[in-house]
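Quick start: what a row looks like.
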Amino acid sequence: MVNPSLFSNLAIALASSQDVDEIARPLKKYLGITSLVYAKNYHDGSEIRLTNQPAWIEHYYKNALYLNSGFEQHPSKLQSGYAIWSHLTHHQPILSEARCFNIDHGMSIIQKTADGCELYFFGTTSDKPFVANLLLNHLDFLHQFTFYFKEKASHLLRKADQHRIIIPKKFNKVYSQEQGLPANSAINVEKILHFNKLHVGNGVRLSARELDCAKLLLQGKSARLIAQALFLSPRTVETHIKHLKEKLDCHTKTELIGKIHELLLYK
């Protein structure tokens, strides 16, 4: 049986959806984002949610989908970074449920805090697969939006904090690290900045310049910005990216980023 108090406190998130949708207007206008979920998970197991997709959040809790989400692990097991939904193998069942609400092709941003962890889930409709690539190319915009969101939604956040969602013994029920989201499955920019070799397998290795491009790709930079950062011509950068695709057997930029992500996680 669902804990009645859970839905009582969840009412804040459901009732504020129009306000959140208004705050999300810049995301819709510039990136085609139609779904926004803000979550804060505290070390003590309590949590708050704000969203412009109330039907999805109600379904998420009513069907206890949080039990299968690595994002619901104890905040100490997560790290700041971002995670592309299509690359989260263990989350495909949840993503399949989300598609029933026309939520797809998204990304999550994870920000550690002193008292827990804040998460932003950005999604679009199922007919817009290109948005995933847009998100990767506009990480700076998304990070700026997180500050904008907390400013504009400050009154909602205060209200939600007074009525936190509590799932008794939640961390004993949520899938373990091995079953859910690996603790390092979000791309950690600091880690990327310090890796200096990447063995692809079968004797294939990436050159120094290819590694430089790989690092900057994972930070969401376009070929033009990578060229500026490395003092190269955009054409040279495109050639390095082409070689990366060939070496890693990828056909698109999104696929390439996912492959590099995977190699970083499991090397």
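That is the whole record. The two ends are 42 Å apart (CA to CA). Residues 135 and 141 are 9 Å apart (CA to CA).
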